[in-house]
Write a structure and sequence with these properties.
Residues 19-167 form the Outer membrane protein beta-barrel domain. The chain has one helix and eight strands; from the N terminus they run H-E-E-E-E-E-E-E-E. By secondary structure, it is mostly beta strands. It has a single domain (24-186), classed as Porin (Beta Barrel).
């Protein structure tokens, strides 16, 4: 009877260790360099300059190992995006806060570097705007691509570009784009 219990404990411990290698949770955060592109923007005059804004993102991730060279990484992020618009008289800032859900396919070149590609759905939570957009869209769809550098087994750095494919405003044909630089920790 003792041998059966010992074998069961060894198998359970091995199973828990295998599950830990196949599935990891993590946290991440970093800087956004966000901008908007498109037409139909009105700011008291048609002569304006558009500039990117620096903002932030923070959130949770899970990494699900499928094979040695491939894994899937869904994330849940709070991300701020937008742009600054300037004319001869005033400066207007359009800052949108999203809950973003990227689901990335991770192609591991080796234990250190991976290529990350996939779709991203974003849901508008807040907007702080001084631009004359009538209403921002509450849903945005985009694609994301970038690289991950594993500094240690648990610490990583990421660089990513997210391109919005749907309009960010009902009033103008404006799309978000953002470059993200992140640091994170996997458990």
């Amino acid at each position: 009877m003792k041998k059966i219990i010992l074998v069961a404990l060894v198998l359970l411990a091995g199973s828990i260790d295998m599950q830990a290698q196949l599935f990891k949770f993590g946290i991440k955060g970093g800087l956004n360099y966000a901008n908007q592109s498109g037409s139909g923007i009105t700011i008291n005059t048609d002569n304006y300059n558009k500039e990117a804004i620096t903002s932030y993102h923070v959130g949770l991730l899970a990494e699900i190992k499928v094979t040695d060279g491939f894994s899937v990484q869904p994330e849940l992020l709070y991300s701020t995006q937008g742009a600054t618009y300037k004319n001869a008289f005033e400066e207007f800032k359009n800052e949108l806060g999203y809950i973003s859900i990227p689901v990335l396919a991770k192609f591991n070149f080796n234990k250190t570097i991976s290529l990350d590609l996939g779709p991203q759905a974003s849901f508008l939570l807040s907007e702080r705007k001084n631009v004359n957009f009538k209403d921002s869209e509450s849903f945005e769809f985009g694609v994301a691509g970038g690289l991950t550098l594993n500094v240690t087994k648990n610490i990583f750095l990421q660089g990513r570009y997210v391109l919005g494919l749907t309009e960010a405003s009902r009033d103008a044909e404006v799309k978000n784009s953002v470059v993200q630089i992140s640091a994170g920790l996997r458990f």
